[in-house]
UniProtKB/TrEMBL annotation:
One of its GO terms (molecular function) is co-receptor binding. One of its GO terms (biological process) is negative regulation of canonical Wnt signaling pathway. Residues 36-63 form the Dickkopf-related protein 1/2/4 C-terminal subdomain domain. Residues 1-22 are annotated as: Disordered. GO terms for cellular component: extracellular space. The lineage of its organism: Eukaryota, Metazoa, Chordata, Craniata, Vertebrata. It is found in: Secreted. This is Dickkopf-related 4-like protein. Keywords: Secreted, Signal. It comes from the Eukaryota.
């Protein structure tokens, strides 16, 4: 094949070529490790979520039973630092000695 034939050979639209590349990359990715940049939680490895961290979003550990968590409310949305919600079937409950806006993951009594 000559160079003029290669130049005229149709490989589909540029948009389809870009999408094919994106799809291939997404299928190859298993998830990024802790503190790596992310867009959404499914970008992160198992046991991590995507949360706001200073200048961008980073994969962070999901708090387990007895670990520190952030209480829901206005304070959580004003921060430049965020934490993941507690693991499934756990909820964040304030402790008498906890700093304001923080709590500890406890078993959810509704489950």
């Amino acid at each position: 094949m000559t160079s003029s034939q290669e130049a005229t050979e149709c490989k589909g639209s540029k948009k389809k070529q870009r999408n094919a590349t994106k799809t291939k990359i997404q299928l190859d990715v298993q998830g990024v490790p802790e503190m790596s940049p992310c867009v959404r939680s499914r970008d992160c490895e198992e046991g991590l979520c995507c949360a706001l961290y200073l200048t961008g979003r980073r994969c962070q550990r999901v708090p387990a039973l007895g670990e520190v968590c952030l209480l829901r409310g206005r304070a959580k949305f004003r921060r430049r630092l965020d934490r993941c919600d507690c693991e499934k079937n756990l909820y964040c409950r304030a402790q008498p000695d906890s700093p304001r806006g923080q709590g500890v993951c406890h078993p959810d009594p509704r489950n």
